[in-house]
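Reader question, answered in our methods column.
A reader sent in the components of a multi-part assembly and asked whether the whole thing could be modeled at once rather than chain by chain. We filled in our standard form and ran it. Here is what they sent:
COMPLEX SIZE: two components
ENTRIES:
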Amino acid sequence: MPPLRNGVVMTDIDIADEMLAALKNWVEAEVIPHASEFELPDEYPTDMALQMADFGLFGATIPSEFGGLELDNMTYARVIEELSRGWMSLAGIINSHLICAKLISKFGSDEQKLKWLPSMATGELRGCFSLSEPDSGSDAGALRCRAERDGDEWVINGTKMWVTNGEKAGVVALLARVPDGEEENSGGITCFIVEKTPGSESGDGVSISRKIDKLGYRGLETVEMSYVDHRLNHDQLLGGDNGIGNGLRWALSALELGRINVAARGVGVAQAAYDAALSYAKEREAFGRPISQHQAIAFKLAEMATKLEAARLLTYEAARKADAGERVDLAAGMAKLFASETASELALDAMRIHGGNGFSTEYPVERYYRDAPLMIIGEGTSEIQKLVISRALLADD
Amino acid sequence: MKVVVCVKQIPDPALPGELDPSTNYLKRDDKLILDESDSYGVEMALQLVEGAGGGEVSLVSMAPNNEVSGLRTALAMGAEDAILVSDNALAGSDALGTARVLAAAISRLSPDLVLAGVESSDGYTGTVPEMIAGVLDIPSITFAKQIEIDGNTVKVQRQTEAGYDDVECQTPALVSVTAGVVEPRYPSFKGIMAAKKKPVEELDLSALGLDESSVGQSGARQETVRVTEAEERQAGEVIEDEGDAHEKIVEFLGELKIV
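And here is the structure of the entire assembly that came back:
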């Protein structure tokens, strides 16, 4: 029986190290040399996703009783960091899937868990998470997608934006507003599990209305989804009647862990940018010596390494707190804020050190530079993190 | 079908190695990892058993300090269990001493097939597999690129300079697997978790019934007399194209037997 701390199963550190070593071998052999071949033409890396399924990563945080690996937050953060060091989009392939799974495993009924989690753990069934709308992002409470009861069914109407993996998903954790006076918690935002046919033509009133072209985070689909009179059975209401009005609170709690994930992505991208800058600075010569021997570059490398280390420690500390069952709003907010900004700064620093070559698609730093802003914006912008942090600091005990 | 794979655990080639000046042997005090050239044998064994729809893959290894890290990697790939022979008296074993030890461990398992890499990535003698077959008095086939089991017959495509030969022999047999002929799988995370619980039987010389004088430094008939630094790689030849560069390149590749 693995050790438990406050109900969280702790991953054996030796086993975690071996997992990370196996993942590192794969990232270095298969991901780093080929990422740009998929990223630049915005092509889905099918073989990489299959290998991630073979590793078991689609079940990374799903409880073992449903066939998942049930990794602790620290190990999962390290996995995300390593994937992102290779190519940040790979973290996206599993992240929204696991947010969907987390909502089901934490708040779903026993029947709902048994219905969806085992096939999600293998990656056979893909999940995604759908909160944002064209006019509601940070202001999640302003969402307009509606769910109206019709006998034993719910009828969904609305448009959702920024749905990562929306096309490949067979289940969507969808946040929709239930009309006033419906139940005790009337008027509240509620989470439903939409079942759909994977692909661009889902049918039954669910459609992928647009594939969003993006600056970075390419290779995996981010889509706009439309719901027109889409009918759900009552048993697709997450958590049953108890779920009515609780959707936003539940989603935000799942996103709190998502922030550690995005922080870990930031650390991975920052590490990749730093590694590229260091190696280039040692090789590239100017004025008769490697540019790393010029203090302007050496000091930049020193600053980069220091920020990278700080970002990693903040992220690991937030993960440690989550594993210890402590409150993580403050720690996760700080980690996400700092690590995402660090990734962005280091990507630009790496580009400066590479000079003209950094601007070329022949070197990977331009990809880090394009990927980094996603982390500043996604799962709560830096401004939202400052709000979260300051509220936690100023809260009365 | 029972397949035994010989696996060597070696110092990580990514880290700078060091020789023991008294023996001229590589120091093996730190963590050892699975020799990549043996990962092909492990993969081949797993594919054979999966293809046969049943069976078992066991590992045998000889390593100092009860080292199991490399074995755990092969167990995580899917092998069932392992025998590790570790004994201070084994230090300084030559190829024949190593073969005697591995043969004694293998004979406890009565396998249908024994697989090994063609040569290890640290020692490179390339003789241990055939010596094991000699000690066990079973047939051996070298340089396999493909293996098929048909009843009691092992059919092997044996790689040659010109292509391959079809070779057959009866089981039990030993086959050495050429590096690169299969793609070793990455261990799944569940495999890594499970490997921790898989049985590794640790044996010393007395458990194997071997005499100290036949193995280790005392039994070694091979001695590393002298070690010299490898020559630094010379800069390549630059061919200026005066209209005949392509011919010179073709000639060069021909000398290397690449074309």
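What stands out: The mean pLDDT of chain A is 92. The interface with chain B takes residues 12, 14-15, 18-19, 22, 25-26, 51, 54-57, 60, 69, 71 of chain A (CB under 8 Å).
Send us your own complexes using the same form.
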